[in-house]
Amino acid sequence: MASCRRLSGAGLREVLGPAQGLLFDCDGVLWAGERAVPGAPELLERLQRSGKAALFVSNNSRRSVAELELRFSRLGFRGVRAEHVFSSALCSALFLRQRLGAAGGGGGGGGGGGGGDSGDGDGGGGLVFVLGGEGLRGEVRAAGLRLVGEGEAGGEAVRAVLVGYDEGFTFGKLAQACGYLRDPRCLLVATDPDPWHPLSDGRRTPGTGSLTAAVETASGRKALVVGKPNTYMFECIVERFGVDPARTLMVGDRLETDILFGKNCGLATILTLTGVSRLEEAQAYMASDSAAAKDMVPNYYVDSIADLIPGLDE
Hints:
alpha/beta, 7-stranded parallel beta sheet, 11 helices, 33% helix
C-alpha cells in the first residue's frame, strides 16, 4: 500500500537510482501558466545527463503536440521533442484511428479508453464530430481522420463524437452531438475526465469532464475516456518506447488523475505540491476505509519537482 512519505535525503537516491525514466504531468508540475516551476528545466537536464528518460503525459487537449513542443522551448526546457509528449488530444486521435480504421493504418496503443458505451466501431472510417479547439482538431486530422464540416459528402455517416476542452461549447453543439449519438454505431469518446482547471487568480474554469457530463446526460450514452487515469496513454508510451513499469516513476499534481494513473499502470508515484492536490487530501485518502480512495495515495511526495535534483548524479 502506498505510504505517502516525503521523498528526501538518502531516499531520493534509493528511488531515483534504479529508475530508467520518469513520466511527468505538465500543468502544475513543470509549469504554472506561462512560468516554469523553479528548478524544473534544470531537473530535466539532469535527468538527461543521468541517462534517464523523461516523457510527458498531459490531459490538456487544448494544444497539439507540436504546440506543446514549442511551449517547452519557450519556457526554457531544452531538448524536449514532440515524440516525448503524449497529450490526451494526440492519444484520443490515435484511439479513434485504431477504432475507426482510417486511411493510414492503425494508431499507437493497444487496448482502449476507460469505461463507456463503446458503440459498434465497425472499422469503416467515417466522420468525427469534435467538440474542442484547433489543437485537438489538428491531431484528429493528423491521424488521417476526417472532421464534420470540412468538405464531407452529403449523407456520410458520423462514426464518433469526440469531446475535449471547448471554450465555444454551446447548446447547438450539444444538440448536434446528441443527434449523431442516436446512431448506436457512433462512438462517444472524451479526451479526459478533468472536471475543472485552476486559473492563475485562484478561480476555476470548467474542464472536459464537465462538458462530457452534459453530453452523456443529454444523449443517454457513456463516454469512453482516453486520458488519465485510464491506461491507454501508457499503452501508447509502451508501444513507442518499450518502457518497463517496474523501473518507471509517475510524477503529478492531481491525485484523481495523475496518481491514480500511475497506480493503474503499475508505476510508483510521486505527488508534487505545486499544483492542484494538497497533502491533506492524500492523507485523508490514506486514512479512508475505501480501497478506491487508497488507490489515489501516492508512494511519495515532494514540495516541488526541483526537490528531486539532489537524488541525481552530476
